[in-house]
Amino acid sequence: MASDRDILPHWAKPTHYTLSLYDLEFGGNFKYQGTVAININIDNSEGWSELVLNAHQLKIHTAEIKTNQGISEAKDISYDEKRQRVTLNFGTTIQYKGEAVLTVKFEGTINNIMAGFYRSKYKPKGEVPASVAKDDEFHYMFSTQFESCDARRAFPCFDEPNLKATFDVDLELPEDQTALSNMPEKEVKPSKKPGFKTVYFDRTPIMSTYLLAWAIGDFEYVEAFTKRKYNGKNLPVRVYTTRGLKEQGRFALDNCHKIVDYFSEQFQIDYPLPKVDLLAVHEFSHGAMENWGLITYRTTAVLFDEKTSADSYRNRVAYVVAHELAHQWFGNLVTMDWWSELWLNEGFATWVGWFAIDHLYPEWNVWGQFVTESVQTAFQFDGLRLSHPIEVPVYDGLEVDQIFDHISYLKGSSVIRMLSAHLGEKVFLQGVADYLKAHKYSNATTNDLWSALSKASGKDVNSFMDNWIRKIGFPVVTVAEEPGQISIRQQRFLLSGDVKPEEDQTVWWIPLGLRTGSSVSAASIHKVQALTQKQDTIADVDESFYQLNKDLTGFYRTNYPPQRLAKLGESRHGLSVQDKIGIIGDAYATSVAGHGATPGLLALVENFQDESDYLVWSQILKDIGSVKSIFSGAEDISEGLKKFHLKLISPAVEKIGWEFKQGEGFLTGQLRAALILSAGLVGHKATVDEALRRFDLYISGEDKSAIHPSLRKAIFSIAVKERGESGFEAVQNEYLTTSSVDGREICLQSLGRVQTPELAQRFLSFIFSDKVAMQDKHSGTIVLATNSKVRIEVWKFIRDRWDTDVHPTLSGNLVVLERFLRFGLNKFSDAKIADEIKEFFKNKDNRGYDKGLDVIDDTIRSLDKYRRRDEGVVREWLKAKGY
């Protein structure tokens, strides 16, 4: 048995499960009864007396094992709560090798913590059958979330990714409700219980327990069919919702069938199941989950209303649909061998999800979006001393929830993009198709993928990718200029800027993407393609223009000399959107780390007043927002940066106007929403006045069309900031009454703009009331944390109400608790607060969110160093420039 991981005894392996759930309580304690018969291969010639499998928060009534020697009943059933296991002791040594059937009768609870088999509350639209579970205010739907290790909360099983098996599922439910599972319905039989039926589903392919799924509720659907034929038929594709919402599934549906066909072609393997169902779930801890054939989503990731949704959600729905469909091959058909290789699933699905959206919506410039959202966010986390390698050792499956993070998803996808750009997209996808064909219906490792890509490309992929996957961090490439040449040096990038020699041993293979020429328009790619040592000198570089890391395809920061940065700013009109984002992001990050300084960043973005691209503005506003946040403690600097921000943004916001024009591009609408929000919050008078005028018309009910759906966040945020208590109460009331699918999320984000400690505390108390679903409790907190006026209140609330509110409410689902803490506390730039946080959590059991606490600590201390180092030069620059 591998000693680097805590796994079940390897001599008992499941091959098939027959799972029946019945006597579900549609109210009260929400208990249910179940029977599971597991076909097991036993390979133990020494004799055995007990079997160990996973079970968590289940009560096992009886267990028996049937071999060709007869039936043995478990005499003793003992639970190991911490390791989430149950041991069935048969009271005697059984000398048996071969096929056996273990039958377990058990009881579970349909919980309300978004893990295992759980219930989610909602307010229905239209008539609801009397059988649907409800309490005073809400109705409930039932569904599952098993990844990573929560199938064991629903039924006793061998809950490890490489213990694949087939599944037969049947569910007992009221006759007027719908049951769904991975496979189509096989048959429906009347139940012994009057008014109930039992639905039997077809057998699944061989798969991991975490991909099993089922759901029960008052569902309806919209349907389409793939254009391609699969086994001679066009596949049915459906989006299921609770009653009254199905029409909002049309946009996802339209993307879904096209993407299934596109991936079937690209991966050279037909989609392997007879149907694709997408289900909108009212409470959901993640964005979505790729259960094979029954993909589950939070409502804002799959529903979109053409009339009432903000346009940004169009992009989100399209991408999340594509990401989860990618998993049907990459993850479901071929599964990572163990959780340490989670990145194989998530990094690839992230990259190929964007790849599909680029195919469907070329006008969205998704690679520009990828660079500003995914790559920059990955840099931020991987620049911490306490980051982890993409492929991270996981001893125990229960640790894995904390690596569903920006490293596995975003750094993983960023290095895949880098590799794909280097090998060429066609060759890369051929290698992926070969990998999928070689390992379908089984498990694979990172090395298996590298082997397939090496074969397809004729290059030794392992040699240049290994450090990217197995080593922590990423490099910064520092450039020095000499006549006609540049010298470049790589070292590990740390946000704190204090990399020690022993932390800087890795030599990364770095694709240079170096362009040079007499001008930006005359520039071409340099013949030297990669940096493969610590430093090098490159000749034939034209001083008139050169630039490293074209389109930011390489996962590294570039640190240019200050005068070169200024020149690149002057050449900006000849650069791609990705180039501009990369240069701005690098200038900010190298300032924080001390390789550069903040005045260089400010001087660079000053050039961008005439910028018209949303994605570039998105990067500028993010980085200037961070600088303002970090220096918010010094009043004179704060005032100067506010003037700088106002001058920078005024021409753009005045030019873009308030009206959405017919046929206008998606990105133009996004730019309008971003500029109005930013200008309004920084006090641009005309923007504030117009926002408040529209707000009053909307809230009074006089003119509900006064606020375009895509401007709700901007206008509500400005009103909360400017109007204080009356604005807060009006937006809070909008939260409680909105029927728009994205309305609640938007209101929570807007309420985070409060300006007084009293309103911040009121908002936090509201977040922890039962009016805000657990999945959304971090939404408002993220904005409070970025709000320098009141962010200290988040820390006070966590500290003062940890035992009464925060821990009791969130600790049932550690993913949610970790996310709440990390987003709520990582924006401070004062080491004293880091000390307080460390002290507070010192003697607590932090298992499940300890890595999040490390991220918070490292981030705050890095920002504190930066603030103290650059405060003087920022003050000086602002003064010299008249801000």
UniProtKB/TrEMBL annotation:
Record text on cofactor binding: Binds 1 zinc ion per subunit.
Gene Ontology biological process terms, A to Z: peptide catabolic process; proteolysis
Recorded GO MF terms: metalloaminopeptidase activity; peptide binding; zinc ion binding
Cofactor(s) of this protein: Zn(2+)
Keywords attached to this entry: Aminopeptidase, Hydrolase, Metal-binding, Metalloprotease, Protease, Zinc
Top-rank taxon: Eukaryota
Gene3D superfamilies: 1.25.50.20, 2.60.40.1910, Neutral Protease Domain 2 (1.10.390.10), tricorn interacting facor f3 domain (2.60.40.1730)
EC number of this enzyme: 3.4.11.-
GO CC annotation terms, alphabetical: cytoplasm; membrane
Active-site residues from the entry: 324 (proton acceptor)
Site (Transition state stabilizer): 409
Residues bound to Zn(2+): 323, 327, 346
UniProt family annotation: Belongs to the peptidase M1 family.
Stated name of the protein: Aminopeptidase
